[in-house]
Design a protein that fits this description.
Helix content is 74%, strand content 0%. The protein has 133 residues and is mainly alpha-helical.
């Protein structure tokens, strides 16, 4: 049985993180691109191009009609995991863990983010009468 695109991205990111025992592999990537404004703009362009290419592949593999929104939306969600893992919030989350726990902290961040994508956004952020007061 095959692997879903979401699982493939999740596993890839965790493998990338595991390449360095202190979860610095992704940190090095972020620092190289995120710390320089000109490179940050190129990183965003790179993500956009990855998303376009991935949407094309997903459309072909799923047999979607030309222009159907599903492949592009799925591609955007998958690429958002890369963007999230290299975000300032993720960096701070990982940095707040002890050196021995950084890989676990990053893996948990990846897993929780992927789980939210699996669950979908339909129930996220809905205020109940109890939480609105």
């Amino acid at each position: 049985m095959g692997q879903s695109p979401l699982d493939a991205v999740r596993v890839f990111l965790k493998d990338l993180a595991a390449a360095d025992e202190h979860a610095n592999g992704i940190e090095v990537f972020h620092t190289a691109f995120g710390g320089v404004p000109q490179l940050r703009a190129r990183l965003l362009l790179m993500y956009e191009r990855f998303e376009q290419a991935l949407a094309h592949v997903l459309a072909e593999e799923s047999g979607s009609e030309a222009g159907h929104p599903a492949p592009r939306l799925v591609a955007a969600q998958l690429i958002s995991l890369f963007r999230l893992v290299t975000s300032e919030e993720a960096r701070e989350h990982v940095a707040s863990a002890s050196a021995d726990e950084r890989l676990n902290a990053l893996n948990a961040w990846i897993d929780e983010s992927a789980a939210l994508q699996v669950e979908g956004l339909a129930g996220y952020g809905i205020r109940t009468s109890a939480s609105a007061s």
